[in-house]
Amino acid sequence: MLYNILKEVAIKNPNEIAIIYGETKITYNTLLEKISGLSEGLKSIGLKKGDCLALLLPNCPEFIFTFYAAMTLGAIILPLNHLFKAEEVEFYLQDSHAKYIITDSHRFQSCIQLISNLSNSVEVIVIDSTRTSSQSFSDLIKSNILDTRPIHIDPNSSAIYQYSSGSTGRPKRVTRTQSNLVSEVRSFGATTNITPTDKILCIVPLYHAHGLGNCLLASTCNGATLVILEPLMKNDLPVEVPFVFRCPRVLELIESKKITVLPAVPYIFSTMVETPVCTNANLNSLRLCFSAGNFLDQKTFDHFLNRYGVPIRQLYGCTEAGSISINLSTEVAQTAKSVGQSLLGVQVSIIDDNGKILPNGEIGEIIVKSQALTKGYDKMPELTSFAFQDGAYYTGDLGFLDQNRYLYITGRKKILIDTGGRKVDPIEIEDVLLTNPKIKEAVVVGVKSNLAGELIKAVVVLKNGIYYSEKEIQIFCRKYLADYKSPKMIEIRDEIPKSPLGKVLRKELI
């Protein structure tokens, strides 16, 4: 399904630019050739329908080649955060029963080491040159392969595994089908009017639902150009740096490439506001600039509009349903706090605790119905039956609809922490802390920060008679968690404050 949509786009616009990555420009015709050749290569090494193929890559063209190649074979893509530590990658590979993992030479050795601990066999494929790779990505791309016949794939077959964080411990595996993804891209494209004249700047991770749906699929399925922010290189190796150091390059790309659509998160927009005036740029080409992932505060909205003359629209979405709503109001300054009206084909309702639909203006839980919606959480029947009822997803978010059906989010039933634009499940960090034999209790909370949304704070109670420093606890966390998940603040207490019923009083720990 997805590949056939891309193929139609490529046949109509073979010489138009599909991807810009640094100095590299890839036309739609070349993109189709790469995908077709890689599809044949992956088939030749045994990838077939229903097999899971993991991607442990930063944003790059190879990510897109592999995604579509897997779609042609009916395989399942598992996009992973390339900043994950080995223990985290090991969990996802084990849980998904992945058979292949595509990564780069920077992460090759850690992948080789971690798969030795798995019960399932995983083959590692490396996209760049390495002497130790058992399988070369470039060798897999067969030449002179361009199948013009339509690919027949069951629309309800699994297409992608994504993991949704929440307040229930380990991340929950969400399976979405090709039909789900097609529904989302058509809904988003029609609502936002994405056309071949658009250039979308990709500065959010493609492994995330925001980047996958609103960058990769939104561009390639509508004939637009996807401009990918290339990595910062040092000694011929990519290095990860805070976004503030990439702002000048982002502003340069917007101006020089005449970017028309900019999907981002509040952290990115707030950082762009704080960029020194000497790095200012002309952003007049932007027709749609939208934020997702967390609440966009009024201060960031106002400062961005005053500095760049472009309003930031808010988009609301989630892993389970993809994009749900977006604020395209002509009165955006008056509706800046709204995440807008639901996308075409998406139904949003507000309900009370008894499941009754509430009238406009009243606050309740947000529930969503759409063809892009997953059926539930894999191997979690109780949680699925709680969150998915009568074809609707109970988001756990609180909000209301105004008289024009504009959605406003007022709070959450969930306790996710937003740090630097990334969502972190505090329960996952607590689980890691409690594996330490010196720690008796642990509670993780988010503390507001002027620079990165929230800082992660861990409050721990040590076992009797044991000494364990804050520094040692941080070192322990960094061993098992990605750096952005590791607590930046540690507080050691004699006891955790709790209610008479034993509920942890998290607000007292912030």
Descriptive account of the structure:
Strand 7 (158-164) and strand 8 form a beta hairpin. The protein is 29% helix and 26% strand. It starts with a helix and ends in an 18-residue tail after the last strand. It is built from 14 helices and 27 strands. The chain has 510 residues and is of the alpha/beta class.
- Roughly how much helix do the residues carry, as a percent range? 25-40%
- Outline the biggest β-sheet: 5 strands, mixed
Using only C-alpha atoms, the radius of gyration works out to 23 Å
Helix/strand-derived category reads: alpha/beta
Low-pLDDT parts are none
Q: What's the overall average pLDDT, rounded? A: 90
Keywords:
510 residues, alpha/beta, five-stranded mixed β-sheet, five-stranded antiparallel β-sheet, 14 helices, 26% strand, globular
Layout of SSEs?
Layout: H1 2-12, E1 17-21, E2 24-27, H2 28-44, E3 52-56, H3 61-73, E4 76-80, H4 86-96, E5 100-103, H5 105-115, E6 123-126, H6 137-140, E7 158-164, E8 172-177, H7 178-192, E9 199-202, H8 209-220, E10 225-228, E11 232-234, E12 237-239, H9 247-256, E13 261-264, H10 266-274, E14 288-291, H11 298-308, E15 313-318, E16 322-326, E17 341-342, E18 347-351, E19 364-369, H12 381-387, E20 388-389, E21 392-401, E22 407-412, E23 417-419, E24 422-424, H13 426-433, E25 439-449, E26 453-462, H14 470-480, E27 489-492
Parallel strand pairs: 1-10, 3-4, 3-5, 5-6, 9-10, 13-14, 14-15, 26-27
Antiparallel strand pairs: 1-2, 7-8, 11-12, 15-16, 16-17, 18-19, 19-21, 20-21, 21-22, 23-24, 25-26
